[in-house]
Every structure is written in C-alpha cells, then in structure tokens.
Amino acid sequence: AVTCGQVDANLAPCVPFLTQGGEPGAACCSGVKTLNGNAQSPDDRKTACNCIKAAANRYPNLKDDAAQSLPSKCGISLNVPISRTINCDTIS
C-alpha cells in the first residue's frame, strides 16, 4: 500500500524543479519512478493522488507547467498526475 510518507519522500528531491523549473535531477526522477512502481492498483493510485495533491498544496509557488512536464522529463509515463486541483476520485 502507498503512504503519504512514501510519496513525500519520493517527491522531496523534485521540489526545486517543481518550484523553480529547469531540469529535474536524477534523485527526483528515481523517486518518481519508485512512486509510479508503487501505485499499481486503483486504490494505491487514488491514495498516491491524494498524497501528491496534499503535498503540492504545501508549495504555493509550485509551477503547474513544471509539474505536468515532470514525467516526460524523467522519461516515464506517470499513472497519477501531479496537480493541486485534481479530483482524485476520477483516478482509476
């Protein structure tokens, strides 16, 4: 099962990229890949979505364009969006 502690730990290296832009570092992309691997079932994806949304809302200077480009910049397809406004009940 996915916990918010895991989500926060995996995304922590991404905060500079998510708030300032540029390029995500290797630790960030590694965390995103781990998070993606952990969120395989619909329940886990919903939990991860809620954790990501809560984490994103702790950073008022989060850049939405950086958040949306993160998976492609890391070369993965993320099964949970990084968004402050997503309705996580729509994730399946």
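the 2nd protein, sequnce then structure:
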Amino acid sequence: MVSTKTVLPDKYSAGPHGLGDPEDRSLRKVETEVLIPKLMREKAKTEKCLMEVADFNRCCKESSLLMVVKCRDENSVMKSCLASWYNNEDFRKLCTEEYLNQRSEYRRTGVKKAMKRI
C-alpha cells in the first residue's frame, strides 16, 4: 500500500483531491503579490478599460513602427485607467473573492477553470 503522507500542511494537501482544503480562505504571499494582481490586470483590461485598450490597439495597428511616438496619448490614457482600477480597494476585494472562489472550486473538483480570453 502506497502512503499519501506529504510534507505540506493539511490546508495545502488535504481535501478530496489532495489539493488543499476547499474551505480555506487564507492567502499565501504568492497569491496576494502575484496571482491576484494578475487577475486584477486581466479584468481591468477586458472588463473595465475596454475603450481605452481598444483605442491604444487601434492606434498601434495604424501607426506600425511609429507607434512609440504616435500613440503616447492613447498609452497614457490606457495606463491611467488601468492604474485607477489596480489601486481601487473595492476592485481588489472583488478580485480576491473571485480568486478564492476559483481556488476553492479547483480544490473541490480537481479541474482547473480556463480563464476567459477575448
């Protein structure tokens, strides 16, 4: 019989699939500093700053190699929009909650949910 003993604490190795406790709401440093900010950037680009991102992309396509010079204004507007959402505490809480729900579902089922791509 093979032992399933692990060196990880139970909250990281327990659960129905050995992926961690689905009800655990604590966050590791990598989650708070890398994964949640990544989710925030993606959501801001695809849900909150659609117009700004589209304007910048259009400018870049039209300007080709001169985009660095010609698209400064669009880039500044887009960065400003993204930064405002990135620094919004309510948005951070919303994204943290979404991340925790996705992690809980993964730990419960063992199936990763693919991120939506536009």
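The mean pLDDT is 85. The radius of gyration is 20 Å.
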